[in-house]
Amino acid sequence: MNMSLAPKMLTGYRVLDITQFVAGPTCTRLLAEAGADVIKIELAPTGDRSRFQGLKPRSPEYKHTSQSTYFFQQNHSKRSLALDFKHPKGQELLRKLAAKCDVLVENFTPGVMSRAGLGYEDLRKINPKLIMCSISFAGQSGPLSDKPGYDYIAQALAGITGVIGEPDGRLAQVPVAIGDASTGVAAAMAVGFALLHRERTGEGQFIEATLVDTYFHMHEANVPKVAIRGDAFVPTREGSLHPNGGPAGVFDCGRGEFIVICALAHQWPQVVKALGMPELENDPRFASARARSDNNRLVADILEGWLKTFPSRDAAIAALEKERIPCAPVLTLNEAMAQPHLVERGTVRQVSDPQIGPFAIPGNPVRFSAWSDQSVLKADLLGEHNQQILQEFGLSNDDIAQLYSEKVIIQDPSLNPGNK
């Protein structure tokens, strides 16, 4: 079978997506990419708030559109159903949909779904096989469960922000939603595991994914050290150098160019060979990983002095790679998007929207041998599939017209001016 025509792994599964912004939509987008039919519930009157971020169409013709590049990136391949979540009929619609869905993903503040009669204990009574995933800031229980928060707040509470920045300078903020995206990936993984469990047992289940837990999971080595040593060991800001002193970190090549080197302890002889400084191998200041860590800045000074002797950054990289030392140029996003490797593999994914035109989004983070990614992607306007979805769940045209008249469901006015 042609790989591009093969049914995807989640084809036949239906997902109810009641999420917005990044973490939740990332989870459901990955499920959609894997073939699931994702029904994205958008809350009246504006829909997913990401519709107001990113770039909008330039043409005055579309100045009131519900489309944006931000929304497209996080929510392509889904069908939009826009409703009033607070209206009793809106909540009844959600129960009707949940009864026939395989998965429900939501990212309200803990307690909102239960107060609406849509908590897991409520929904499992009407659909025992339902897998429900709640994505939140800090979890459904615990002292922080009712605290409002986003990616960077979770990063701070998980002990991540505290180790970012120059040792003698201000703390730094990573301007990328690492926690949001990673929580979405973790949630999608968990849903996949739960679907496999259901196939084997027939049981649905409840899943929690949180930003704080995901960020804390990123500590690769220091948690045991703190647990054993207590306050005798406090991870601190190291700036551009990794504390293990590989050498590892960001190094100045001169001319405003920088390079990242990540040499492990066993690769020090290779570094010495690349530098052309054999005397360093047995120098007591650098003879062990601990010694190099203690003399981190001195190692960096020697290395940067050597890097600046090259006519270009590429020449320095070539000298390092000759000795198989892991390294890379520090690129701007613009430079990264132009890299032939990323373009060829579809990591930079070219898409087009009728209102916005052509642009690029990140590609799928994983690839499967049994099927390929969709070549053409589409993101719905607000409420674009209201009619189709509700008809699939047994509502008549008269039922749907009544819901429009009561403003229980809404849609982008450009789709059907009669339903404004």
Describe this protein with a few key phrases.
420 residues, single chain, 17 helices, 2 domains, seven-stranded mixed β-sheet, alpha/beta, three-stranded antiparallel β-sheet
Written account of the structure:
This protein has helices at 23-33, 69-75, 88-98, 112-115, 120-126, 151-157, 178-201, 211-217, 222-229, 268-275, 289-294, 296-307, 313-322, 333-337, 340-344, 386-392, 397-405; strands at residues 14-18, 37-43, 79-83, 103-106, 131-136, 205-210, 248-254, 257-262, 327-329, 348-353, 357-362, 409-410. It has 420 residues and is of the alpha/beta class. It has 2 domains: 3-217 and 345-419, Crotonobetainyl-coa:carnitine coa-transferase, domain 1 (Rossmann fold); 248-331, formyl-coa transferase, domain 3, CATH 3.30.1540.10. A hairpin with a 3-residue loop joins strand 10 (348-353) and strand 11 (357-362). Helix 1 (23-33) crosses helix 7, helix 6 crosses helix 8 (211-217) and helix 7 (178-201) crosses helix 8. The model has no long low-confidence stretch (mean pLDDT 95).
SSE inventory with pairings:
Blueprint: E1 14-18, H1 23-33, E2 37-43, H2 69-75, E3 79-83, H3 88-98, E4 103-106, H4 112-115, H5 120-126, E5 131-136, H6 151-157, H7 178-201, E6 205-210, H8 211-217, H9 222-229, E7 248-254, E8 257-262, H10 268-275, H11 289-294, H12 296-307, H13 313-322, E9 327-329, H14 333-337, H15 340-344, E10 348-353, E11 357-362, H16 386-392, H17 397-405, E12 409-410
Parallel strand pairs: 1-2, 1-4, 2-3, 4-5, 5-6
Antiparallel strand pairs: 3-12, 7-8, 8-9, 10-11
Helix pairs in contact: 1-7, 6-8, 7-8
